[in-house]
């Protein structure tokens, strides 16, 4: 693991910083509550049942099994903690928080919008939203890699939260795209469901390697990305070992991809430390 080396925050807190801190805190509360209610956590329609079940655990061969989605409780908790930490008076001028706080708020609002799109039955709309969401998370990832750590608490909370969020949404984007193609009855272009599923989980493994290589000097960021991606891919594999979409080939490919996702950031980090 990385030894956090903090860069002193010496810049002066401005009125714009205070406005940002309050807005992100309030916006985070609204976004998290809205997303929780919209997902059916308090008795509404669950996401798995919305849009005709297009995003259920058995909709496509790359749909993660139901327990995979419990990671959202961890991500939401991290986002709530982030919102509180960034709002602390001492963190008003933190350069990393200045660089990504608005982006974090945008990601939370996009996540709520994604839930809304699914609840109204627009699978195509959900794909557009999740692709934009992944773009926002990728932007945060690049900024966090480039900026040095500041104080330990905001640095660790930010990296862990954004890392888990980015890793999970990376896998979810592939699953969401597959759900849209299945819902739209797009032809399988010769490869068949199994072939395309292997291509998608392989793409996830390649993406995990890319994340690890680029962010190799930020273990607190890339290790959570790999962990979240491995979690999602493992549950894709487990989902294909039983039930109506049993597929040994996809299960094996998903388990291998999960191993790659888990190890890639570790290997990249260790290689960077030896240089």
TrEMBL record:
<protein>
    <submittedName>
        <fullName>Tryptophan-rich sensory protein</fullName>
    </submittedName>
</protein>
<feature type="transmembrane region" description="Helical">
    <location>
        <begin position="250"/>
        <end position="272"/>
    </location>
</feature>
<feature type="transmembrane region" description="Helical">
    <location>
        <begin position="123"/>
        <end position="142"/>
    </location>
</feature>
<feature type="transmembrane region" description="Helical">
    <location>
        <begin position="162"/>
        <end position="182"/>
    </location>
</feature>
<dbReference type="InterPro" id="IPR038330">
    <property type="entry name" value="TspO/MBR-related_sf"/>
</dbReference>
<dbReference type="Pfam" id="PF03073">
    <property type="entry name" value="TspO_MBR"/>
</dbReference>
<comment type="similarity">
    <text>Belongs to the TspO/BZRP family.</text>
</comment>
<keyword id="KW-0472">Membrane</keyword>
<feature type="transmembrane region" description="Helical">
    <location>
        <begin position="22"/>
        <end position="48"/>
    </location>
</feature>
<feature type="transmembrane region" description="Helical">
    <location>
        <begin position="68"/>
        <end position="88"/>
    </location>
</feature>
<keyword id="KW-1133">Transmembrane helix</keyword>
<feature type="transmembrane region" description="Helical">
    <location>
        <begin position="100"/>
        <end position="117"/>
    </location>
</feature>
<feature type="transmembrane region" description="Helical">
    <location>
        <begin position="221"/>
        <end position="238"/>
    </location>
</feature>
<dbReference type="InterPro" id="IPR004307">
    <property type="entry name" value="TspO_MBR"/>
</dbReference>
<feature type="transmembrane region" description="Helical">
    <location>
        <begin position="194"/>
        <end position="214"/>
    </location>
</feature>
<keyword id="KW-0812">Transmembrane</keyword>
């Amino acid at each position: 693991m990385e030894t956090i080396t903090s860069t002193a925050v010496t810049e002066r807190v401005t009125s714009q910083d205070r406005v940002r801190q309050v807005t992100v805190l309030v916006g985070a509360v609204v976004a998290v509550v809205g997303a929780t209610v919209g997902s059916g956590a308090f008795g509404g329609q669950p996401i798995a049942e919305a849009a005709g079940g297009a995003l259920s655990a058995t909709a496509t061969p790359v749909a993660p099994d139901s327990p995979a989605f419990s990671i959202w409780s961890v991500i939401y908790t991290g986002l709530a903690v982030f919102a509180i930490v960034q709002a602390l008076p001492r963190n008003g001028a933190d350069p990393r928080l200045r660089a990504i706080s608005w982006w974090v708020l945008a990601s939370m609002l996009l996540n709520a919008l994604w839930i809304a799109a699914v609840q109204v039955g627009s699978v195509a709309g959900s794909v557009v939203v999740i692709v934009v969401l992944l773009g926002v998370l990728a932007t945060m990832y690049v900024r966090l890699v480039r900026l040095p750590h500041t104080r330990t608490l905001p640095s660790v909370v930010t990296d862990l939260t954004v890392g888990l969020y980015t890793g999970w949404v990376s896998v979810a984007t592939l699953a969401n795209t597959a759900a849209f193609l299945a819902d739209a009855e797009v032809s399988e272009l010769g490869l068949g469901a199994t072939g395309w599923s292997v291509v998608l989980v392989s793409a996830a493994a390649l993406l995990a390697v890319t994340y690890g290589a680029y962010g190799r000097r930020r273990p607190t960021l890339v290790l959570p990305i790999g962990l979240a991606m491995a979690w999602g891919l493992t549950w894709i594999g487990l989902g294909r070992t039983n039930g109506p979409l049993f597929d040994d080939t996809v299960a094996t490919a998903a388990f291998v991809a999960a191993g790659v996702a888990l190890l890639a950031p570790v290997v990249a980090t260790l290689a960077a430390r030896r240089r």
